Amino acid sequence: MNNALRAVWAFRGFVLTSVKREFQAKYRNSLLGATWTVIQPLSMILVYTVIFSHMMKSKLPGVEGGFAYSIYLCAGVLTWGLFVEIVSRAQTVFLDNANLIKKLSFPKLCLPLIVVLNALLNFVIIFALFLGFLLAVGLFPGWVALAMLPVLLIQVMFAIGLGIVLGVFNVFFRDVGQLFAVVINFWFWFTPIVYPANTLPAELQTWLTLNPMAALVGAYQQIFVHGHAPDWASLAPVTVLAVVLCALGAQLFRRHAGEMVDEL
């Protein structure tokens, strides 16, 4: 593992250049360029605030304030978006970079690292706007917001571990990518993002404990809606799962790296 990390560090220039190039390429032919990274999430926050907090008068049970539901929704949607971006891109990363893998010799661990860094770059921009909105309306939770950092780490580990496992299988079985696109839609609605978990019947709330993203999204919502640190014990299962998936993904890649090159 240490050798792999040293190899990645030796190629840090390649990683950072790839992240920069991909970010620039995303807006290369647009007049406003990277400004769209601000306009798009800002418009989403405004829509959630206006429609859900004012026009629909949506409220959370037990939470006062006209912006409570929009904050609840943003905390869930933004973090869910990070999860989906990492997993979606990681499960196609080997297919998307087939020519690079065949022609160049470099630590293949660089590829999922580039995926994570790109996703985090987008997330930081979007989430900074969300935090700015909280400050503007006087609802920033204070120092407890730092509790999101370990939650974010767990989420990234879970997402990239799952993504690499799916990515390896996707090289040999292309149906994996198609199936994931279907599963992720159901997964979204099985996660308390647009609805509070306590509005569900008791038997369905029990099933939510099997959803690792429910615990992660709930942790963000606890921080930014209620201003409290998350229940760390509830994050223990998803933390273990994240570590297992990362180890499994690394093992699968090492075992099938040669076969993957032939298959690509």
Note down, in words, how this protein is organized.
- 73% of the residues lie in helices and 0% in strands.
- The protein is globular.
- The longest helix is centred in the C-terminal third of the chain and has 28 residues, at 236-263.
- α4 (68-90) runs antiparallel to α7 (110-136), α4 packs antiparallel against α11 (212-226) and α8 (148-172) packs parallel to α12.
- It is mostly helical and 264 residues long.
Q: Number of helical runs?
A: 12
Helix content: over 70%
Provide the β-strand percentage band: under 5%
What does the overall shape look like?
globular
Low-pLDDT windows of residues: none
Radius of gyration: 20 Å
List how many beta strands DSSP finds. Answer: 0
The biggest sheet amounts to: none
Head-to-tail CA distance between termini: 25 Å
Helix/sheet category: mainly alpha
Write the layout of secondary structure elements.
Layout: H1 2-10, H2 12-26, H3 36-55, H4 68-90, H5 93-96, H6 98-103, H7 110-136, H8 148-172, H9 175-189, H10 202-208, H11 212-226, H12 236-263
Helix pairs in contact: 2-7, 3-4, 3-7, 4-7, 4-8, 4-11, 8-11, 8-12
Describe the structure in brief.
By secondary structure, this protein is mainly alpha-helical.
Keywords:
globular; 264 residues
